[in-house]
Design a protein that fits this description.
α7 (about 115-125) runs parallel beside α12, α11 runs antiparallel to α12 (about 205-220) and α12 runs antiparallel to α13. With about 280 residues, the protein is mainly alpha-helical. It has a domain at about 155-250. The longest helix has about 55 residues, at about 225-280. It contains 13 helices and no strands. About 70% of the residues lie in helices and about 0% in strands.
Length: about 280
């Protein structure tokens, strides 16, 4: 009788551990992959119209580029930049619904700066921004990032092929070198957080913190000031070290839980084997 009670107690300890994988899978399928309201996203007539066969090829290309962009991945659609009403085809391009259309070249920085406020400030104060304001045709946002097929920013944007179109690559190379270690650490931490999320760990707070650090650092880059980047590198290194410390602590806790679960499982198997042998042993 005592062995039976012990066996039941061990089962109560082990079953939650062994059932966690199934629970996590069901949780992700039933909750994480759906909107909280349970409703599907609404139609976007801007995208539908620009994807139709009646549209000119150059306009069809716009939607294809946007669908492959970082904006699309983050649910930033046509109306977020160009205004208008994507729910009403009759008013989708109405100024009364905020439609502003395609910006003129000299309007591009302010156009993108509606969302990228910190970057706009640093850009306007930079050599790039001053050249643009004085001539009207200097480098602006789309010169480096493109207009619709915008990808997640990374250090590879700084390349001789791109930068040498306007000037020598020497200064750009120095900027890239100044950015390298910090950008590399940001990429490493992003991969670590993704790995934790795949393990079922809640990482939104750290992900948003890292995103904020990354945004501040890349806004700093748009100053195109090598010395300023070097001066503030330590500041960003300390912030990233704090994120890394939390990630390391979480990984350590995960390892402990896995090891503890394995020990409990082995103990359970061992006790089951002992119980089996006791039952099978003939009584004298």
């Amino acid at each position: 009788m005592k062995w039976c009670i012990m066996l039941m107690g061990l089962m109560l300890l082990v079953l939650p551990v062994t059932a966690w994988g199934d629970y996590r899978e069901e949780f992700e399928k039933g909750f994480l992959t759906k909107t909280w309201s349970g409703q599907q996203p609404e139609e976007n007539f801007c995208i539908e119209c620009h994807s139709s066969e009646k549209m000119k090829p150059e306009y069809l290309r716009i939607t294809d580029e946007w669908k492959a962009s970082w904006h699309a991945q983050n649910r930033i659609a046509c109306h977020d930049c160009h205004g208008g009403d994507p729910k009403d085809p009759a008013m989708s391009m109405s100024p009364h619904r905020g439609f502003v259309g395609k910006p003129e070249p000299n309007e591009v920085p302010e156009f993108c700066g509606k969302c990228h406020i910190g970057i706009l400030k640093n850009y306007l104060e930079s050599g790039h921004g001053r050249a643009f304001r004085s001539s009207g045709n200097g480098p602006n946002c789309v010169t480096c990032h493109g207009s619709h097929n915008i990808q997640q920013a990374n250090i590879e944007i700084i390349s001789e092929q791109r930068c040498a179109k306007c000037h020598s690559y020497d200064r750009a190379r120095a900027m890239k070198q100044a950015l390298f270690l910090t950008e590399k650490k940001i990429e490493e931490l992003s991969r670590d957080l993704l790995s934790l999320r795949n393990e079922g760990v809640y990482i939104d707070d750290d992900r948003m913190n890292l995103f904020s650090i990354q945004a501040d650092f890349r806004a700093l880059f748009h100053s195109v000031d090598v010395n300023l980047v070097k001066e503030r590198t330590d500041e960003f290194s300390h912030k990233l070290a704090a994120v890394e410390s939390r990630i390391t602590a979480t990984e350590r806790e995960l390892r402990f839980r896995r090891n503890f679960s394995a020990i409990i499982l082995l103990f359970f198997v061992g006790m089951g084997s002992v119980l089996y042998l006791l039952i099978r042993t003939p009584k004298e």
